[in-house]
Amino acid sequence: MRLAVLDGDRAAIVTDSGVHDVTDLLPTAAGRYGGPWLPWLENGGTAAQLRELDLARCPAHPLGAVTLRAPLARPGKIVAAPVNYLDHKVEMHEQKTIAEYGVFLKANTSIIGPGEKVELPYTDKRTDQEGELAIVIGRTARHVGPAEALDYVFGYTGVLDITVRSTEDRSTRKSFDTFTPLGPWIVTADEVGDPDTLGLRCWVGGQLRQQTNTAELIFSVAELVAYASSVMTLHPGDIIATGTPAGVGPLHDGTGIRLEIDRIGTLEVDVTGEHAISYTDRPGAHLDARISQR
Using one digit for the tens of pLDDT, what is the confidence trace for 170-181? Predict the structure, then answer.
């Protein structure tokens, strides 16, 4: 099943016949920040429960007539894999992988949904797109092994890990507001099947920049969930970004990004530099200059 969010924090299920607003059929209400699906997941919601819903009782709309929002507007945490494709490791001249780097966290306030805009922070620092498969956790997981890790996955979605190429640590460079476009919806794990056989493609301004298959992941989806759970407790609704392949490149004002993942769907956002500033004008930069002069 495909779980979406509509304007007004309305929960919806997307089928071939349309978008069905199931808000009034759920036992939970939208959370203050996380939208309708996070409280439902935290309350133990399962795909089996969704299949029992009578969609004929729900208002239905054509997909083209609705505006989709981020399927999880503010999850508890976003865990991300820094280097998880060999071709990207070579591209970025990295010497290490997750086994040495570990994973990192992104601010959950960086999420936006389909059709929204990535805001470039600087006029003179390169900011790149990184198209990735995202895992949505469905059950609390701690110290789970790879053999059972997929049992803790509720579903999958697309994610763009937007990144400034500057000197700050990864969490800073990747946590600006708007730097985690997510969507277009969550597809339940039963519908996706094997997550390590998904084709992934990412276009920027109509140019195909990234093309791979999740079979090329260094840490498979199960191994990544198991590793993350060995470091921190994973809660329902948490997101794990699985890493990006080669083909990252600079974003510019006015361009569009399109991420397409087999059996998941297509996520499209735009890019704006309207409020970008010079890197030397960033908060705190004058303090660095003062220290260097001493």
Answer: 999 999 999 999
Residues 6 or more apart whose CB falls under 8 angstroms from that of 240 comprise 78, 79, 80, 81, 103, 134, 135, 137, 224, 225, 228, 234
pLDDT single digits (tens) 71-125? 999 999 999 999 898 766 566 666 677 888 899 999 999 999 999 999 999 999 9
Residues 6 or more apart whose CB falls under 8 angstroms from that of 260 comprise 158, 200, 201, 202, 203, 266, 267
User: Does residue 252 contact residue 234 with C-beta atoms inside 8 Å?
Assistant: no
Sign of torsion, CA 133 134 136 140? positive
Which pair of tokens denotes residue 206? 């109509």
Phi-psi region of 173 (alpha: psi -120 to 50; beta: other; left: phi over 0): alpha
Structure tokens given for 61: 């709309």
Q: What pTM value is reported for the model?
A: 0.95
DSSP reduced 3-state for 229: helix
Which strand ranges, in their side-by-side order, compose the sheet holding 207-213?
117-119, 265-272, 256-261, 199-204, 207-213
